[in-house]
Protein 1
Amino acid sequence: MLHLNRKNKSKLPEISTASLPDIVFILLFFFMTVTVMKNNRLLVENTLPNADEIEKLDKRDRVIEIIVGRPTKQYTSIVGVESKIQLNGKFAHVDEIGSYVLAEIAKMPEHLRSVAIISLKIDKTVNMGIVSDIKEELRKVNALKVNYTTFEGDAFNNLQ
Amino acid sequence: MPRRKGAPEVNAGSMADIAFLLLIFFLVTTTIETDAGLDRMLPPMEPPTEEPPIIRQRNIFTVNINRNGQLLVEEEIMDIKNLRAAATAFLDNGGAPSGDPEHCSYCKGKRDSESSDNPTKAIISLKNDRETKYSTYITVQNELVGAYNDLRNREAQRLYGTDFVKMEAEYLNPETPSSVRDELKDKVKRIQELFPQKLSEAETSKNQ
């Protein structure tokens, strides 16, 4: 038995694991570079509605987010239960949207300014009144490309 | 006293473990998120002096959503599930008689003279209450965009043997080679001209 084992060992040389750290490091750097730490905490409830005729929003560099929804539990005592707008991690009033969008567009490189998209992340339960006000503000500053951001799914699920 | 020859070597055996730990951390925290949604263009602010263009009543398809999420389509109550079919029938109607400059040669609708003349003239007007739920609004938007996409798919199938949605996705994909994209651009444009998306959203009614 011993003899047989020794014979096998001499036939199969050990696989060198010396390059394993390098491989792992390459993977590590890949994930480090693609990771975007979520920097804005959600201050509002944000369950998006479903839709199926959707288009992907994969070019992140030209997207400006506007989040709308009811304040989460920890903020209801301060700002109430009515739907609120969240811009860049802060609660905002409708009037501030125009200047915020213009400031965000000004931050973009010049060739992207004309293709900027406003991503409206609006909670299912929000009433259309506030949405119309936001659209009106966007029209005032001529930011006309909007994307009603949704989850992928059957649109009729929204009605229940 | 024996003298050391240089610094002792640092054992690098645990390097892989450390790297693995970091790797797993980043793997877990990474969410490669791609948002998706309904793309829409808002109407530009119109100059106050400009006269609104005159549009024939039969070329307008009115959709009203009330605060309870009920639909009033062309003055009749309609279930939201039938909206797509109704919108498709309206857009595809092609009511203008042959010989008329507005005659629609590719329409397959009923050619009802009381409905839209031509898909390029047909306008869908969407109105909602301030208390309409956003989710209902998205469903209606989704159905209307769906009606346009269905018709565009049909024409794309007829002309190019492929779906419009597929063509558009490929056209918008930055990884598609530019030679293919240029070719697709004309096709996508042509289909879009056959069924232009004319979805008007009036200001929300306030006191009705």
Note: The first helix of chain A runs from residue 2 to 11.
Protein 2
Amino acid sequence: MDKGLLAYLLIPLLSAVIIPFAARTRPKMADILANVTLLAGLANLLWLALRPSMIAGGFADIPGDGLSLLLVAAVYLVGLCVTFFSAYFIEEGLPNRPAYYSLLLVSVAAMTGVVTTTDFFTLYVFIEVLAVTSFALITTDDSSAGIEGALKYFFLTFPASVLIIVGIAILMMTLGSLSYENLRLFMASDAPAGPVTFASALIMLGFIVKSGVVPFHTWTPDAYQGAYAPVSAHLAGIVTKISGVYAIIKLATLLRFFDGRAQALSEMLMFLGMLSIAVGALAALKQTNFKRMLAFSSISQIGYIVLAAGLGTPLAIMGAVFHLINHATFKTVLFLNSASLEKSTGTTDMDKLGGMEHSMPWTSWTSIVALLSTAGVPPLSGFWSKLLIILALWESGLRVYAVLALLFSIVTLAYFMMMQKKVFFGKKTPASERVQEVSAPLLAPVVLMSAIIVALGLLFPYFYAYVKVVAERIIL
Amino acid sequence: MNLILIPIILPIVSALALLLISERTRYLKELLAICASVVSLLAAANIFLLPAQTVSYAWLGSAISFTLSTDTLSAFLLLAAGLFSAAISIYSFSMPNKGPAKWFFFNLLMTQAFASGAALADNMVAMLFFWEGLLVFLYTFIALSQTTYAAKRTAMKAFLINGATDICLLVGITITGYIAGTMSMSEISHNKLTLDYGWSVFAYVLLLIGAVSKAGAFPFHTWIPDAATDSSASFMAFVPAAIDKLLGIYFLARASIYLFVLNGTMQLVLMTLGAVTILVAVMMALVQKDYKRLLSYHAVSQTGYMILGIGTLNPIGIAGGLFHMINHATYKSCLFMTSGSVERQAGTTDLSKLGGLFRAMPVTGLCFIIAAAAISGIAPLNGFFSKELVYKGTLDTGYTIFFLAAELGSFLTLASFLKLGHSVFFGVRPENLKETKEAPFSMLLPMLGLAAICVVFGFGAQLPINWFISPSLEALNIRHGILTGFHPDKLYFLSVIVILAAVINHLLGLAAGGGKADKASDHIHYAPVLKEAYAMAERRVFDIYEVGMDRVVPAFSYALFKVDRFFDWVIDTAPSGAAGFLGNTSRRFHTGSYPLYMALTLAGAIIYILLLASNGGLK
């Protein structure tokens, strides 16, 4: 456990305990407490990572491996956006308002635990905590779709828990320890891998299922579509990334894919990543529901991260980490925009919408920024991360993967442009008449995230310096 | 600033300034253009009088030296371009049919600037730069002279023909520069290229195409008659009659004498090209029913004399070619000006509707007679002397047939000008032209000036020969004997016989045509065999451009269209079809069925484990 970041785990947990009591008579207290907690944490993190002396020193003084700090910041950022959005989104009469915020804070605490832990068992515990809070959060509005989504999420990812625990057991038996460091040392030695690799492969499989990589992706569309609107953003933006993809990147570095250990697993991972990119993008092309399309897009984008993690070279890991952060930003924007659309028009069916750019210009423009970033259009942040990934693939001689990754990013642009055209451009449909832009507080999170997308793209050299430090520390 | 740059930069600056002047101002644009062209002319005269000098700038880094040099030939060209620019800008002052004044003078000054640059450039790349610039202003000149669709079409025709031949020139210059190892013409001239091997022959032929196409020789001439009807007389007097001839023949002389040493075969090619151009164009000119169109065919025909003269490769012939170049520019410009005056005063250029205008427009008529006599080679006007030199040069080569062709051309030229002059200025004046008056002074002045030059260069032929032509030959490094002097020899009497024959032919034609002057050529037009040939020419069967546009281009475009459709299918229809199919399949697969999803998850997990186990995960 990285003790320097322990406070970021404990304080939200404490707030989560306080909220039900504080908000018993005044439900609004729940909003305030949750927001203040996350905002304070985020401010603290930003000071830690971005104070001028740190930037001037090329991020050499970053505590820990740097990756944890970055991801905790991402968790807090998305968490803050979701809680802030929720504060103005939730209807007045929703009975379980305090519970909702408590669960969100617990989920933030659990994610912090996931990214700061240094051994597999603690990782497993926090993953399960995260999963339980997610099931509950999906069903916030008690709709039948939400319950269906939650059940699918639960049942279809439950094999993952089995696989992870079995893998941990085998690892314990063969390696005698569950800490990351021991696994890293073992892989660095010349000892025959055998059962250790197999155990790692099982743990890896568990996390693959949890990230929603094809063919284990089947729970994602239903869960994202059925979930309570801000929760979709929370789930797609950060939860599934932390509970699955983060662990895959971590394992990829621990298993030393870059120097050719666990070759078969590395190749398998890359294949699954490419399959995800393809299936996700192609399925997204034909969706009619905005949120469902975003879900398939998530599958596709996760494919990029998994592909890069499977390659495992320093450049690829940098690309994977950067794409993880970018995915958190642009997918949160798009899901929050879908929530805004749902609030304004009552539907997310793209066939029923049209011409929204006039009535909802802010939503339209932030969507454009986010979708261009997703498709990897320069100079937005998504361009750089995809560039890093494709460069890494090309340098490693995986020309076919590089070309396919490039082609499917064109498909990404295609389905998002179709979405933008159907929903925001063109003529107004009956459902879009008399619609007004959502209130400023609901726009604030997406505008903030869009600004981050642009800023990360334009200030890429600084961010690159940071990610380089991260890659050096976690790989060497 | 160096004096050499003034004839290039001043017109460009003035042309750009013209565009800033409001449409509502009267005369301001005209006066600015006249001032700019007259000052350029004075600068050119000054340059001509000064000894040869060279200005050089490093261009494109230091890869190409942008060199302008005023050897006597270039300075002569510069002076001529300035003269015609000044004359035409004064002439156009009150010319209503020239199109919008702003754009007319813009194009005129730009053409002058780029023509001056092309004449002065010593480096072939720099010359090409100016040469191609002329192409742009050729297009805009024609396209903006009238608002009709025909003007745009003719502009495109001129642009495409000249564009295609300019590409030949570009390739030719590239190869020449590559073979010679330098792009500087003066450096190449110290060590001329020979036509001993394929690449140099190829390069020379490409340069030849570029030069004769600019000069408007057969078969690249077809846009000129169209431009005569679809554009203004001012444009015709300036570009096809003067500037294009000057530059084309100038570069033909440079390429044939200065850069390359030609052999007998190439001499024959050049002389054949000249003779064919003379005859084909003059035959067409003879039967035209329109003032400007008739003149435009003569503009092509006379090019043949110049090419013939240069093709003789002997000093007398070359001197004749260059002398004919400046003479032709003078009288043809003058003739187009008379056509513009008649068009302005009488409202038409159709020969059947004109007649008897000499009394109404005596000055115009006088200028016409002088210029027509000059072009027909009647002694002692300037055309006579230059043609005489060409004939002599041709006879000296020993190919009498070309001499005969040139004399036949001379006969037909005179015949067609008898017809033209008779039907416009003499005969019976139609009722509706009774009120016709003389053209304004601003139009008469340049016309008279050019007619005066025709007379002066005729009676005092030693003047231009000594001032312009001999120095030009020296600039081309040609030793030559005495070129001047009037000789009442066999050639002179032959020319008298030709004149008499043309007059007799005209009288015959009048008798056959029932006394109508505009039908005086019908006995040739509808003669057996010729009748069919003319009919085919009227249908533009011999016009390479039109045939290409009708036959080749549609087929080629269709083929390209099909190729484009194929690529479209490959990069658009096929991928989007495949993506759509796969997307639909994928969409139908995600039914939301829990057992299906669970089965897929478990099957995936089992395959994953088995694959890893078999691939050495357990090793």
Note: Residues 144-175 of chain A form the longest helix (32 residues).
